Amino acid sequence: MSGATDDHSSAGAIDLRSDTVTRPTAAMLEAMRTAPLGDDSRDGDPTVVRLERLAAAMVGKEAALFVPSGTMGNLLAVLAHVRPGHDVLVDPLAHLATSEIAGLVGVAGVVPRSVASRAGCYDLAALAAALATAPAGRVGAGLVWLETSHNGAGGRVVPVDHVGEVGAMARRRGVPVHLDGARLFNAAVALGVPAATIAAPVDSVMVCVSKGLSAPVGSLLAGSVAFVARARALRRMLGGAMRQAGVIAAAGLVALETMIDRLAQDHAVARRLAAGLAGLEKTLVDPATVETNMLRLDVSRTRHDAEAWAAALARHGILVQASGAAQLRLVTHRHIDPAAADRVIAAFAAAA
């Protein structure tokens, strides 16, 4: 498997908790060692500038900003788009609503308002109603949120047409749209389209280089020149201005230049896992819903809850994430090859 030879996990513990556990490639480490450096918060770091320009071009936006994390990138998007007191219209299973809400409320001072959705796609009638009205005592919608691939929906991909419909609907109301594209390149590979095609209808987009693309740290927030200028000032306010950040940006460049096409291999391994686990117990997962590198397993009809499953699998050298009482999350990445997937299926059979 391309890129996996420098850290192969099928022979030891198999870590499926997240694709954030990926290690930098040898090419990334060499690029980090030799990167031209400057002060990103003063005159600019040349390697960061290269990364920002490449990322902006790849997602079809005018400019981009390098940030330490996807969470910071998303928070900056909210701060740059929305005035305090407004609502962010969001799918209740979006990562923003489940894991980033403290920053949304406590730092940005905006209110999340759930809109009915399925597999990451909004009920368009419900979204139209939410855009047109505001609950009593509320200012109204200031931002519409999208996410693809969709973590809470098990790595599902939002169709390009749906992104376009949401963008057009919000534009008619004068409300911007932000796309949490932490795994946008997984979605692009699954759909067979450029990332810029998916992001074209939205006003801003955040992408991570530190998940399946294997860079050790970093994300990029992209949008118009004016939007990125606001976000850059807000990044300093949040303490996110960095100095010789080219050391880490260099790995991000390698990630964007060399690691996107191989994401298809992670998707294939995820489908292999889904087929094998469904063969053990069909209620665990529907293989037809596995579109990228993520599986969310329903263990509610088994004899064990999610924590017990995670503990039993750990004894077999398989690390997975329990999500609530009835769900396990498994995420494939470049350190998980087909042989590792087969070991996982065998471990599930033994743990059962």
Tell me what you see in this structure.
The protein has 352 residues and is an alpha/beta fold. It has 2 domains: 100 residues, Aspartate Aminotransferase, domain 1; 233 residues, Aspartate Aminotransferase, domain 2, CATH 3.40.640.10. Helices cover 42% and strands 16% of the residues. It has 14 helices and 14 strands. The strands form 4 sheets. Strands 2-10-9-8-7-3-4 form a 7-stranded mixed β-sheet, with helices on both faces. Helix 1 runs antiparallel to helix 11, helix 2 packs parallel to helix 11 and helix 3 crosses helix 10. The radius of gyration is 20 Å and the shape is globular. 52% of the residues are buried.
Features:
14 helices, disordered N terminus, alpha/beta, 352 residues, single chain, three-stranded antiparallel beta sheet, globular, 16% strand, Aspartate Aminotransferase, domain 1, 42% helix, seven-stranded mixed beta sheet
Brief write-up:
The protein is an alpha/beta fold and 352 residues long. It has helices at 26-34, 46-59, 70-81, 95-99, 101-106, 124-132, 160-172, 184-191, 195-199, 225-237, 246-258, 263-280, 306-315, 338-351, and strands at residues 14-15, 63-67, 87-90, 111-114, 117-118, 121-122, 141-147, 177-181, 204-208, 219-223, 294-298, 318-319, 321-323, 327-331.
Give the topology:
Blueprint: E1 14-15, H1 26-34, H2 46-59, E2 63-67, H3 70-81, E3 87-90, H4 95-99, H5 101-106, E4 111-114, E5 117-118, E6 121-122, H6 124-132, E7 141-147, H7 160-172, E8 177-181, H8 184-191, H9 195-199, E9 204-208, E10 219-223, H10 225-237, H11 246-258, H12 263-280, E11 294-298, H13 306-315, E12 318-319, E13 321-323, E14 327-331, H14 338-351
Parallel strand pairs: 1-12, 3-4, 3-7, 7-8, 8-9
Antiparallel strand pairs: 2-10, 5-6, 9-10, 11-14, 13-14
Helix pairs in contact: 1-11, 2-11, 3-10, 6-7, 12-14
